[in-house]
Predict the structure.
Amino acid sequence: MPIMEQSAPSAVASQFKTPLRSKVLARLGNLGLPIAMIVLILLFGVGDPRFLTYSNAENVMRQGAVLVVVSLAQTFAIVSGSIDLSVGSALGLASVVTALVASQAGLAVGYAAGIATGALVGAVNGYFVATWRLNSIIVTLGMLSIAKGLAFIISGGITISDVPDSFSIIGLQSVGHFPLMALIALVAFVVSLIILQSTSLGRLIYATGGNAVAANLSGVRVVRYRFLGLLASGIFVGIAAILASSRVNSGNPLTGTGYELQSIAAVVVGGVSLRGGEGKVWGSVLGAILIAMLANGLNLIGLSSYLQSMITGAILVLAVVIDQALHRQAV
Amino acid sequence: MMRLSLMAQSQSKRLVWAQLALPSAFVVMCIALAVVHPRFLSPLNMDNVSRQAAFLMILSAGQTFAIISGGIDLSSGAVVSVVGIVTTLIVLQFGIAPGVAAGLLAGAILGSINGAIIARLKLPPMIVTLAMSTFGAGLALTITGGMPVQQVPMDFSVIGRGWIGPIPIPVILAVLVTAVSYLVLRYTRFGRHVYAVGANEDTALLSGISVRWRKLQVYTMAGLMAGLAGIALSSLVDSGQPRLGEGMEFQAIAAVALGGTKLGGGEGGVISTAFGVLFVSVLANGLNLLNVPTYSQWLAMGAALIAALLLQRAGR
C-alpha cells in the first residue's frame, strides 16, 4: 500500500529492505528443482550417452506421464489438508474396470468407467475424511486395502488382455514428436494449475488445507473443500489409470503398485508442504519428472533395481534437505 | 463431593465409550468367532494367533512411540527385513547370540539415522521414514541379491517357534515390550517428554525439553523394536527373507490408530495399541478360519478398519 511505504521513516524502513543475499536465495529456492534436473541430465548424459537420445526421452515421457498425473492427484489431496495413500490401488482398480468395460462397451465408455471408478474411490475417501472427520491417513489406508481387494476380485487376479484394438492408442501414439501420454499429462497439469491457482475453488482448497479452523471461522465450507480435494485426487487417479492401462494394452490389478509413495515423494520434492495449504502445482510435476528421470537414468546405467531403490531413497532425502535449506535461507 | 454438570457427565460418558469401543468390539468378535467356528479356541489356533499378534505388537509398540511424539515411522517394515537378513547372516557365521546382538544393533542404527535426520535437519518424519523404507528395502535386496538366506541352524528358530511353559516365546517378548513401554511412557521423564513433544513441539522446547534429543531417542527405539520383531520373525521362518517385513508398517499404523491413539500425537498409549493389535490379528485369523478368500480378506480388513474408526468417532 503506497501510503504506508512512503510515510515509514528510513530507520524503520531499512529493517524491511530485503538484503540481496535473501533475494538471490529466494530466486534460487524456486529454481532449485529445475537446477537439480539439469544437473541430473548432465550426470546421466555423461554416464551413458543413450540417456540423451530422443527415444530415451520419449521413454521418460511415457513412464513419467502416469507418475505426473498421480502426483497431480496427490497434490490436490495434500494441498486440501489430507493425504491419499489409496492412489496406487485405486489406479489398479480403475485399470481393471476400464479394461473390462472397454471390452464390453467400447473405448469411450470404458474410459468413462475408469474415471468414474477413480472418482468413486475419491468420493468415499472424501466422505469419511470430510464429513466424519476421520484421519485421512487411516481412511485412505483402509481404502487402499478395499480397492486392492476389489481390483483382484473383479479381475480374478489376472491381467485382462481382451481389450479392443484401439485400447493402446494413447499408450503408443505420438503427436508429432510428443507421445500422446505426455500431452494428456500436460493437459492435466494445465487444468490443475488453472483450478488451483486461478479459481476461487482453488483458493478455498488451499485455505482449507492451510488452516481449517481459521478457514471455517472465515466462513469457508471446510467440509466441502476437503471432500473436493480427495474427490479431485480420485478423478486424476482415474485418468492416470487410463494412461497406464493403455501403455500395457491391458487391465492389471497390480498397476499402480508403489505409486502412492512415489507420488508423495514427488510432491514433497516439488516443495508442497505435507501439512497442506501451500505449494505449487508445477513443483509436483517437476518432482514427478525428476523421479521418473532418476529411475530411467539409473536403469540405463545398469544399476540393479535393488541399488536403485537405495539411491532413490538417499536422493529423496537430499532433495528435501536442499529444498528446505534454500527456503529457510530465503526467509 | 463434586457433582458433575450435565454436560460434563455426558462428556465423560462419551470418553469412556470412546475408550471402550474397540475393546468391546474385540470381545464381541471373539465371542462371535468362538460360537461360529469351534476351532477358533483350539490350542493350535490360539498359539497361531497369539504368535502373529505378538510380532505385530512388538512392531506397533515402536510405532506408538513415534506417533505419540507427533511423527510416524514408515520404515519399520523395511527395518524388519534388513534386520532379519543381518541376523541370519551373522547367526550363520558366528552363532545365535552374536546374531541377535547384531540384529538389535542394526535396528537401532537404522532408527537412529531416521531420528538424526528428523531431529537435526527437521525434515518431515513421513518423508524421512519413507526414504528409509525405500533405502532399506533396497538394502535388504542388495545384500542378498534377492535370494533368501538359507540353512540357518534350527536352534535359531526357537525364538520364533518355541515356548516357555505353555506360552509362546514371541508372546512373552511382546508382553515384556508392552510392559516396559507402558512403564516408560507413564512413569519416566522421557515418557512425559515424548507426550509433550507430540502435543506441542514449540511449547515443549520452550519448557526446556530437549526436543531434538527426544526425537532421536524415539526413532532409535522404534528401530530397535522393529529389529526385535525382525529377529523373531526371521526365527519363525528360519531364514532371512529380504521382503520379510514388507507392508508391516501399515499394519502397525492401523493397529495404533484403531487403538485410539490420535495420529497427530501427544496422547495415546501402548495398551490401546495392544487392543488394536489384538483386534486386527483376531480379525485376520477369523477370516482365515472362515475360509474367506484372500482378495475378500483385503476388502474386509480395509472395511473393518474404517468401520472401527467410525465406531470410535461416533462415541466422541
